[in-house]
Amino acid sequence: MASKKSSSRKPEELKKMSLIQLKEILSREESLLKNKSIISKLSDKGESIKKFHEQVKYEIKYREEMADLEISISTLQISESDKHVQKLCELEKSPGKERYKPFSTLNTTKEIHTDRKVFKTMEDWSKCNKPTKLIPLAESMEILKQQDEKIKEEQIKFKHRLLERQLEEEHAHEEEDEDSESEVDKVESESEDEETVADLHILNT
Q1: Which of these, 60, 112, 144, 187, is most buried using a 10 Å CB contact count?
Q2: According to the model, what pLDDT value does residue 65 have?
Q3: A Pfam family for this UniProt protein (predicted)?
Q4: DSSP characters over 64-120
Q5: CB half-sphere exposure, 67, CA atoms < 13 A
Q6: Which of these, 3, 65, 60, lies nearest to 26 by C-alpha position?
């Protein structure tokens, strides 16, 4: 059990875990930090636990930020495209106001024997299919340029976060102390044994 815990305390192992597993480990480490009896038994007074606790917090924060960035980039691509299409549609559907013409709504086809419903359908179709008005090419290109710049900005942020993570991991590997981790695992096992004995004692009484 101790060897399993020891491997899980390594920074490279955290990357293999799911977000749910990371949050469970974070909760466990926080409980350890609150347990003064365990901290007092450690030669480093809990510094290795604090260090690992921060590594878990960082990994969770990193995962959540990366997820947010991916959603942001995806949403940006869709929303900017929608805005461009929406503007085209607005220009297509916004003809200039026509002056009111008396009797313009009267059915002028009464002189010929045409079914009113058929005429109404043709009239509505005609109103909905007026000539399309397109955005000027310069304005359309500007919209696409702004969209491209925003996407590139989000991608740069994403790459910076990846680089920061790589540098911090390299630094963590250099400072990793296997002895202190083994000591923490030993104390954790002793603590669990003490809790088990206490539970058995309560049941026997």
Answers
A1: 187
A2: 86
A3: GCOM2
A4: HHHHHHHHHHHHHHHHHHHHHHHHHHHHHS-PPPPPP-TTTTS-GGGGTT--HHHHH
A5: 8
A6: 60
